[in-house]
Amino acid sequence: MQDLALTINLGSSSLKAALVDSTGAIPWHGGRSLQPDESLEEVLERWLAPALEPYRKSIILVGHRVVHGGEHFTAPTRIDDQVETTLQELVPLAPLHNPPALKGLAWARDWAPDLPQWACFDTAFHSTLPAAASTYALPAELRQRGFRRFGFHGINHQHVAETVAGQWQQQGRDPKKLRLISAHLGAGASLAAIQGGRCIDTTMGYTPLEGLVMASRCGSVDPGLLLELMREGIGAAQLADLLQQQAGLKGLSGLSGDMRDIREQAAAGHQGAQLALDVFRQRLLQLIGAMAASLQGVDVLALTGGIGEHDQALRSELEEALAWLPNLEMVIVQADEEGMIARLCRRSAAVG
After folding, report:
1. pLDDT single digits (tens) 160-186
2. Residues catalogued as catalytic
3. Domains in the chain: how many in total?
């Protein structure tokens, strides 16, 4: 059996893992949602460890997805004690996602203490953002504290960028001239404007709340609205729950954050579901236009993620609504965070 990279991708209530060989083939992958009475540590030990046992001797490294790398980490990073301490300090930037990643790291170190552990960051691909795109119009004191746009979904945006660039190269076109909008549309959603393989603009910001309408996240809203809610007495915890868990498609429809449910109910005449579709599409079109402006034109719009890959109605709507963009090519790219993590780790390990 070829040498395998183990990738671990932990969410706030879910676990995905895969084994990836040097050709990109995946001989094993699996995922689990945590039940209310389960801890992440229990699932790692009772489900993941037995599943990996037949492959254990072939695993050469472990790559972890970490959502937020802050300003410290802009490339895949070999984990040591100092790196782990810094990751602990970054937890406030992604309180729902970074803590599970740290638990996964601790488990993998105990499970296979001799294997090198690597962290790959969702923010890293966006480290090429120019200052004009990453800077908020805030006083210097706040900007110096690190309040800036970071961007997220970078691991999959990079996978999309490399995939489309490879397709262009096969067609005899120069990937350095490629102006690409990567549209990661799923429960979380973001766009990235990619020029010659480098990200120059994106829709998510300091946190994954900014930008597009998402399953239960609001996307961009007027900060004055939040100030008014605070003036009316809503506390930080309640506001966080409202914006992250009760908003987006779920809040608009009053039904669900699942686009498949929204489509079905809209077809049956449900007004909330139709409103959710309309607002989602309007915001998406607005921000595709913004990314196209940053690129000064666009050659390819790549749809990825659960909605991007499977919602054929949305694809048709986008084709019609974006007909004004000359020579726009729309493609579907299957998301592959696990494969991209493995490639990033192997490249960094080879250089190191």
Report:
1. 999 999 999 999 999 999 999 999 999
2. 122
3. 2
